[in-house]
Write a structure and sequence with these properties.
alpha/beta, TIM Barrel, 9 strands, 49% helix, globular, binds ligand C2E, binds calcium ion
């Protein structure tokens, strides 16, 4: 019965008619249960912390702001990537508590940065679907004193697909006080253009997969070029994700992209390192002229 239940759960979550039980499903269920237990403890102990990846002006290399990325180092499991624990937190109702802790900590850290730097924060569909989301963000901004116009919320299309009206209300409330909205992983979903027309979006983030293949694949280069044209035509800012080498940086500059993120500049770093980076006289990663 337990195995049938596992297969049933799988069938439901993959939207298929039926699934046979496989031994590997049992292992995954066990692993998930273990992560859930450890995650509850980890959140209660404050073991999950915000790290910060800089967004830079591609030409000058000047830091414009930082994106919050959750990091969890477990005493036995080691580094647990967000791709492994965020879905568990969403499933077992811990994501709001975790998200609030990360945002409050990040706002306190970012409060000390130079006052033109922005803070970008990822929000999961489950968070945005709760009716209190907008109010909780406002409360955190109030408590920490972080200026709303320096905060940017990153959402993906999945966030919008799951419950459009609740999302619209919360995002509308936040936009009214000056919080900006970015559409993350742009170009990977089914309805990107629909959302661009129906939502007030301030920025699109071109997905890493397009940047990665820009050099070798003419289709990716054409898509990046088209996304930049689209963004600029709509008056929406465009940031490229996952820039790993100087060639990609150069190609993006010549395509007219002004902002980017990626390992070429820096991976996500702890608060103290981000603060040190901000305090450097020239907080920039190599000036570059467009080719
Ligand atoms: P994302 O929002 O698209 O974040 C970008 C991911 O790409 C991060 O992975 C980052 O470390 C990685 N990355 C950045 N530059 C490069 C690069 O040049 N090359 C490559 N190969 N990768 C790069 P990470 O930290 O593992 O996060 C994965 C996803 O987990 C994020 O994707 C986001 O959807 C989610 N996530 C992370 N932190 C949070 C959080 O605090 N809340 C929520 N709701 N989701 C989060
Ligand atoms: Ca993001
Ligand atoms: Ca992304």
């Amino acid at each position: 019965m337990r195995r049938a239940d596992i297969a049933l759960y799988r069938a439901k979550s993959s939207h298929s008619d039926f699934r046979f039980f496989e031994a590997s499903m049992d292992d995954q269920v066990r692993e998930r249960a273990m992560i859930e237990t450890e995650l509850r403890l980890g959140i209660a102990n404050g073991d999950i912390q915000p790290y910060y990846q800089p967004t830079v002006d591609l030409e000058t290399g000047t830091i414009i702001g930082f994106e919050v990325l959750a990091r969890w180092t477990h005493k036995f499991l080691g580094e647990v990537p967000p791709g492994r624990f965020i879905p568990v937190a969403e499933d077992c109702g811990l994501i709001c508590e975790l998200g609030d802790h990360l945002l409050a900590t990040a706002c306190r850290d970012a409060y000390k940065w130079p006052n033109d730097m922005t803070l970008s924060f990822n929000v999961s569909p489950v968070q945005l679907r709760t009716s209190t989301f907008g109010l909780r963000v406002l409360a955190i901004l109030g408590e920490t004193g972080f200026p709303p116009n320096r905060l940017e919320i990153e959402i993906t299309e999945n966030t919008l697909v799951s419950d459009l009206n609740t999302a619209k209300t919360a995002l509308g409330l936040l936009r009214e006080v000056g919080v900006r909205i970015a559409l993350d992983d742009f170009g990977t979903g089914y309805s990107s253009l629909y959302h661009l027309r129906n939502f007030k979006i301030d920025r699109i983030k071109v997905d890493r997969s397009f940047v990665e293949n820009m050099g070798g694949e003419s289709a990716s280069a054409a898509i990046v070029q088209a996304l930049l044209g689209l963004g600029h035509g709509l008056g929406v800012q465009v940031t490229a994700e996952g820039i790993e080498n100087a060639e990609q940086r150069r190609a993006l500059i010549s395509a007219g992209c002004d902002q980017g993120q990626g390992f070429l500049f820096s991976a996500a770093i702890p608060a103290a390192e981000a603060q040190a980076l901000c305090e450097k006289d020239f907080s920039s990663f190599g000036k570059m002229r467009s080719a």
